[in-house]
């Protein structure tokens, strides 16, 4: 019998980084805090835009 050359596929997670395992320094924000800060920033920008006209 002839030997068949088996083709080896790379592992499914090769080259991917798992960011949820890495601990970073900095503020920890919840999604609600990000949304609130975005709304406040948008309101401030709109207020500044129309305050000079």
Automatic annotation (TrEMBL):
The chain crosses the membrane at residues 34-52. It is found in: Cell membrane. GO terms for cellular component: plasma membrane. Keywords: Cell membrane, Membrane, Protein transport, Translocation, Transmembrane, Transmembrane helix, Transport. It is a single-pass membrane protein. GO terms for biological process: protein transport. The keyword Ribosomal protein does not apply. It comes from the Archaea. Its main location: membrane. Residues 1-30 are cytoplasmic. The keyword Ribosomal protein does not apply. Pfam families: Sec61_beta. Component of the protein translocase complex. Heterotrimer consisting of alpha (SecY), beta (SecG) and gamma (SecE) subunits. Can form oligomers of the heterotrimer. Belongs to the SEC61-beta family. Involved in protein export. The function of the beta subunit is unknown, but it may be involved in stabilization of the trimeric complex. This is Preprotein translocase subunit SecG. The lineage of its organism: Archaea, Methanobacteriati, Methanobacteriota, Methanomada group, Methanobacteria. The gene is secG.
């Amino acid at each position: 019998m002839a030997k068949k050359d088996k083709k080896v596929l790379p592992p499914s997670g090769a080259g991917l980084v798992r960011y949820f395992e890495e601990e970073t320094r900095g503020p920890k924000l919840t999604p609600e805090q990000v949304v609130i800060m975005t709304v406040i920033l948008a309101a401030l920008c709109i207020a500044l835009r129309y305050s000079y006209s």
